[in-house]
Amino acid sequence: MSKPVLAIVGRPNVGKSTIFNRIVGERVAIVEDKPGVTRDRIYSQGDWLNYDFHIIDTGGIEISDEPLIHQMRYQAELAIEEADVICFIVNGKEGITAADEEVAQILFRSKKPVVLGVNKMDDPGMHDRLYEFYSLGIGDPYPISGTHGLGLGDLLDEVVKHFSDIKEDPYDEDTIRMSLIGRPNVGKSSLVNAILGEERVIVSDIPGTTRDAIDTPFTKDNQDYVIIDTAGMRKRGKVYESTEKYSVLRSLKAIERSDVVLVVLNAEEGIIEQDKKIAGYAHEEGRAVVIVVNKWDAVEKDDKTMREFEQKIRDEFLFLDYAPIVFLSAKTKRRMQHLLPLVQEVSEFHNLRVQTHILNDVIVDAVTMNPTPTDHGGRRLRIKYTTQVAVAPPTFVLFVNDPELLHFSYRRYLENKIRNTFNFIGTPIRILARKKND
Ligand code: GDP
Ligand code: GDP
Question: Which of 14, 135, 358, 393 would you label with 217, given CA atoms 20 to 30 Å apart?
């Protein structure tokens, strides 16, 4: 399931970005700012109670030369499209304006959950001004102060209540959920069409509809799959074309709903920062990854071209050293037949459980070949036993005398041993250390 999305809407200067920054805290935005598109960070993540969520400040989008009311309408529409819950911020010092009333109308009609935050209520003496805001017709106003951090807990309590209404994805566990992620024009829709056009592929009559997208379930050779729709594949609205940030958000949401992420590159073009960021997110979220180099038909090749391109990908995507690379063409269909079997294979490794005694033999061998490190005081890391605690991605826990003694390089060494022994293709694996007393 993907993380829920909270959007912040409101007039300029009501305090949206102050509140956004409070909720986000010290996190670093995944999407960096680009001149011209935003004035500040507009997209990041937050957490409250048991929820991790995406948060977007629609005020960060500026459409130059448009009257305020048009900008506000546009931002409200974006929020309605993208968010599960909308936080509408007004200014408690100024009271209600015509623009507030207009936005309240739009939000009300959308039937999306809206939580009303009345900002700049810096001291409790101002609270009798709250009643005025009931006339917006969108429920109880929550008094907050972005600069002083007051009232945000109550506001977020109300926000996350609505998150619990979000339905789970309807697919059963054996269905491989896959998404195609990449810039516009790399050939994502062509690839989807090519997959669905393959022999023995049976596309379900009923598209899976979710809160975000239209998914395409299909079956091939007794394996169920679903293609999770992403930005720009089917829903090329004006809103998405004009703001790349929101297509990034859509990609992130698709990654969260996927078992296997196909990172699609265009053989004719290089690799850009955005490709790396999105692929990095798939890695962090523990998804299986296949790198697809599309439009291979359009490249002039000799016997070195493929190896060179592969090396370039390896250099750029260092963290994805486990992801298989496939060179193909959606247009000529060349090598298309390898794609689904590869998706199925990485999905199997993503869900692989290894036997505990074999795992422990591997670790003992690894330690024999390359002894565990010691700290400055000469204390040595001792691994008592190892067990696999999860799949998707495979996650291993080492029970040790002191987790601090497991350094990055030794963890990496053990990861490689496990990876090579069990041949974990296409999936990240995680190694955790827990203290175990004698
Ligand atoms: P945005 O345009 O809606 O994103 O608003 P900003 O977050 O940039 O805030 C606009 C101005 O209001 C800034 O000068 C903030 O310091 C100020 N501001 C934000 N929150 C509060 C608050 O709770 N109380 C007061 N007094 N000022 C605030
Ligand atoms: P998307 O924006 O990623 O969904 O990309 P599209 O599937 O719409 O494809 C963008 C353009 O690339 C279209 O003009 C396609 O015909 C073209 N295209 C897609 N796949 C291939 C391919 O394998 N080879 C060549 N030469 N062109 C392709």
Answer: 393
